[in-house]
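The aim of this short unit is practical: by the end, you should be able to scan a pair of folded records and say something sensible about each. We start with the first protein, listed as its amino acid sequence and then its structure tokens.
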Amino acid sequence: MARRRFRSNQRHEPTTERSFQEYILSTPAPQTSRTELLRLIRGGEDTFLELKVKLSNTEKIAQEIVALANTGGGVIVFGVNDQLRVEGVDDPERVQEDLVRICREEIHPPLVPFIDRIALDNGRRIVALDIESKRRPYRTRDGRFYLRIGAEKREASREEISTLLDEARPLRYESVPALGATIADIDEAHLWTYLRAFEGGAFEESAVVDYPTTEVLERDLLLATSDGHEVVPTVAGLLLFGRDERVAELLPRAAVTATRFSGDSPQSPVVERVKIAGNLLNVYEAVNRFLERYCDLRDSRPRVAVESGDDESPVPARANYHRGVVAEAITNMLGHRDLALRDLPSRLHVFDHSLEFVNARRSVGFSPVAHKAIRYGMPQRLNPQLAAVLTNAAYGLPLSLRGLPSMLREAKRFANRKAEIVAFNDEFRLRIYGF
């Protein structure tokens, strides 16, 4: 049976870089008794204990720390061999310094290291690193996630990473590397069309040689990250500029399901249902085309309203919607989805007389206070960089309205009926009515 960690006193990791540094400098680690530690060592390695003779490979040590932190915490003891014999370390102070650096620089988010240097009766000294998991999931600097299974570590599968992310607070896609992606997965035509819109200002085409996609994506747009060996697009970078087939493969949760119902509720018969995947620009255009098959998008209110069914036609008249309201609603759905939530796909429901946009958005920490604030123009963006690119005219979306307040105002003016907003069970639902 796996043993729990040997410390029971509670500690709270700081959440900012500044507080992390202050904590390291000012907070001493609680002392561990030699008897307690030796009892752990005699039991051998398990899910919560790793034994090392010395600290030699910082990359592997970082992986071991990440694995323990993602699995629930544990202890790494330096100075003990595989036969459970205490050999000690020559320079425990240097080992402690290296562990502090690894926890700060090689692991994200940074870990607060609680380290004990223990001298035994025979003069040998060992170092114990106590690892907690308050802010998991943790990953190495090159964006890899690890778990500990028994006495061994292994790299987490996509399903296991998804489970870890489900437990976390919403993550910014700008800083999370898209696992399995490379710069070759970026649609360069799309990216450079966006960049050329800034010609004469931030972007100087005369200075461009051979289209340095990697450099621009990483240094200028901050939509790629380097692991020291290779530059990898972030989730936001792949969503914005990725090739459709790779976005669909690597980020399946980013797809949108569009359904036309023959009626005014989800219980009505389904006329057509399609799953739309790809980068955000192409998904927007595909969703818009789906809508235009079943309703009319107009720039101004028509003079004659849609009849509610007084005629005997088996096919209801097409509803009219304000083009700008629909564009803003689609953009809001694409830009504010929380991909960390499983089994909650983004959905568009087309009814006879209304449209419903359903999006995964974590309720805890967002509703009801922030839910009300967005109606008054106070943005609550999970990914501000992604939202900034998505709503920029250079990206290509035809947005005439900006923000939820203007969309709600125009939706009411156009249809003479208020749009409805509901946030419940980690879903954000927006319903607008036709005319």
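Turning to the second protein, read its sequence before its tokens, just as you did above.
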Amino acid sequence: MEKKSLGVVKTQYFTFANPPDELKLESGARLGPVTIAYETYGELNKEKTNAVLILHALSGDAHVAGFHEGEKDPGWWDSMVGPEKAFDTNKYFVICSNILGGCAGSTGPSSINPRTNKTYCLDFPIVSIGDMVECQKRLIEYLGIKKLLTVVGGSMGGMQALAWLVKYPNKIHSAIPIATAMRHSPQQIAFDEVGRQAIMADPCWKDGDYYGGAHPAKGLAVARMIGHITYMSDASMADKFGRQKKKDSEQFKFTADFEVEGYLRYRGDNFVKRFDANSYLYITKAMDNFDATRSKPLQEVWKGLKVKVLVIAFKSDWLYPAYQSKEIIKACKFAGLEASYCEIDSTYGHDAFLLEFEEETHLVKHFLKKVFSVSQNEAKL
């Protein structure tokens, strides 16, 4: 039986940190005003104890479920959010916001700098995963929520979930980091750097000052192509494309004659229609700089916490391999947290966190039911 859709939803906006009360970033720089785009689904209960915060990955945004008016495609995790789905909007109040530094409604390098009345470009300060979480905390407070039932996200979203655990563990009952890491490995940093260099090598990049003219579309498309290769697996590529060639392919020409070539070009070309190249630079740098441990053993940082944790990984994910998720669960166990780990047998690679919704739904539903029951008992005390 097909689950119901949320129907048409709208993006909302929250602005804070107006001068002289600018947001102080982890770098020491100050930024304001700051606008955060967000969407909500379901109803917040009277006690305000049923709120779930979904954290998006690198190319995501606040539109996690339902449809925007006039659009045919639903939100990026629509299979997981809605009535009777993993994040059941009949039970939970679901929130998703576009990150600081993004380009889908939140303040980022493509926004107007109020001091100059011009686009920030590279005058936008370097932001961190922690800064993104600070903005989310301000949004949650604005919505009148004292404590979240859970924070959940895959990939970079998982990093944000870990940052919540480190920065504001008293503000959450649980966390669900999926297909993520406590810090990037040299290989993960290397892939990000190649993507950044592709953008900066585009003659249209102009040291980030391209707004109002031609954007570095070719460089950003290549960056996306590189990224998309890492999101899939050898098995999923073989299954989806094999060595199949297009019917109209020309032998010995530098055209996209293999199906996989055409697919990557299609993904790259589509990506540049909705994403900003400078945001790509800032966000990947934030991911590379992220270190949940902050040079301290996590078992010490998390010791004594009452937060429950569900860690999910995928066997074919070679971008964020399972050993990195096992490091997270090991730290949880050493700290005495109530934590569970599940490694899903999938061939989809890193993209599995967006595609294996049946397995994830089973795990998340069971986990949230338990967390919600405990949180309700705590609220009565």
